[in-house]
Predict the structure.
Amino acid sequence: MINRFLAIIAGITAGIVTGILPGVHPNLIAALTAATSIEPLLSAIFLTAMAGTNTIIESISTAFLAPDPDKAGSACQQFLREGKAPDAARLLILGGTIGALLSIGAMFAVLPVVKQTYTIIQPALGIILGCMSMFFILQEETLHKKMCAFFIAINAGALGWIVLNNPVPEPLFLLLTGMYAIPALVRNIVSKQEISAQHTETITELQQGKTWLTAIAGSLSAGLLMLLPSTSPSHAAYAVQPVARKPAYYLILLGAINSADLILSLGASYYLGKERNGVMATIAKMTEITLPFAAYLGGIMLLAIGISALLGTWLVSKTAKLLERISYVWLCSSILVFILLLTIWLTGLIGIIILLTSGAIGILCQHEGVSHKHCMNALTVPVIGYFL
Amino acid sequence: MEQLIRWTAAGLIILGLTLTIIFSQQEINTSAAFVQVTGTIIKITEKNKVSILIIQPNPSIPVIAFNTAELAQGQKVTITAKAQDYKGRLELVAEKIKILEEK
């Protein structure tokens, strides 16, 4: 029993690290854990606690570093400019905690629907995903942006196809860190713009009813992610965007989708036999996910989310004060160097080449002002290939 | 906002602890859902986009594998696979194949 308790503590600690450092994803830690000889039960507890914690704590890096342009859109950058990054982090955390609570109920409504629908659409899933990618390209405002988006989608898809169909170590880390974390860090470094002083106290006011309505929409829309492989929370957010037009509610929506996605993915591993993320895939390889075991891991996940929400609100103020003392550009440069060293250590020269290529695609996306959703074609194209 | 976070976090902790305590008493099957087999490939049969590998020293248990372009007879491999029943016979579905020695 003490071992299990220590595994939870270790998982929460690891989740804090992966949450704070953009680019270091729980999938990477899951892959490293799978290579060890730790007892499967303890590994599963550790990974579950880490994934739950990461979902909440990554709100801090998202708010202060805005590493994921699509995930929080321009909302986080707007909050950061106005000195309200701590509020942006709190809104994401709030969405995460409410979304986690609601997704327990949503699971019983969403998963049976997903199971039925998936059976019907599975033969056409490749075509549906292809049409979805085209739809998002056509959503770009001007012809120039549409063409850029098409170019980015083709390149991201080709890179994903090559990387995922060859024996490349840690392919998801290389693709996603390159396309999402690297561009934002480079932007923060190149612009040499130090951030303004941040208000540590809460400024944003919310309407209770609208907050809950937004979180409910987020929890239910996460079901779309179970249905369509290779889609990201920003795709689900697009579907329910009308309920959260204001930036504050949009952040609550994204927080709710993230945590609901995680909890539903645990339910889906048992109920649908489908692993939505690397953490669940690793756990499913090590252990058999029965109903009691899924409920046990669900309990650990909720516990980790609850504890990390309390820790997260405390860390938000500390981070804001810390950023007043250290250079923002220096911080981003340090994280970038850390990611490069980690890439060399884990994947060698081939990893650096892939990271720089995916980073270039992400930077192009950022430079041309088109949505980062097109980068997800790095996963969508191989998935389409699998289904066709 | 912070008060709402605290309340929902408290709810999550209570719910999480309850589930963890109730289900920690349940029998949890952590016996590996996957098995590992090491041996030499003695036969490869291609059939409907999948390959059926026969491995020495367990030739009676076929291994179903995908993406076998790099595999050839005579190679020594370690296969991580899931055991399943197929028409009353045991077979393995390969998840990961590591080539130890070329033929």
